[in-house]
């Protein structure tokens, strides 16, 4: 049995950092292009490109959220610490030894409902998806 541990990086910090750090890097790369542009209009071509890149990044971030969290609720998957968090009390007979047990009652009361609910939401990993999306998009734009 794996012990329960809180997230290493809490969701609010992941979302704030995963969104704002690449956003800032994109601004640092694109803003000098706008300022050094030969066009002297307020809305020059480089400025429009910069805003399009930021909007595409924001849209992709939202799509990543939808395509990660949606299947997580529908498909789910037990996390390694599920047995410690739930301590299921299931009647297992010889006929159900090799089958997936769906009829059980959690006997552990040490953890709250939120932790129990999250222990059933393992796949796909939101932390990995957001980190990779930000890193890949920023890498493509910056170089």
From TrEMBL:
This is Phosphatidic acid phosphatase type 2/haloperoxidase domain-containing protein. It comes from the Eukaryota. SUPFAM superfamilies: Acid phosphatase/Vanadium-dependent haloperoxidase. The keyword Cell inner membrane does not apply. Gene3D superfamilies: Phosphatidic acid phosphatase type 2/haloperoxidase. PANTHER family: LIPID PHOSPHATE PHOSPHATASE, PHOSPHOLIPID PHOSPHATASE HOMOLOG 1.2 HOMOLOG. Keywords: Membrane, Transmembrane, Transmembrane helix. Belongs to the PA-phosphatase related phosphoesterase family. Residues 54-140 form the Phosphatidic acid phosphatase type 2/haloperoxidase domain. Coiled coil: none annotated. It is found in: Membrane. The chain crosses the membrane at residues 12-29, 49-68. It is a multi-pass membrane protein. It comes from Tegillarca granosa.
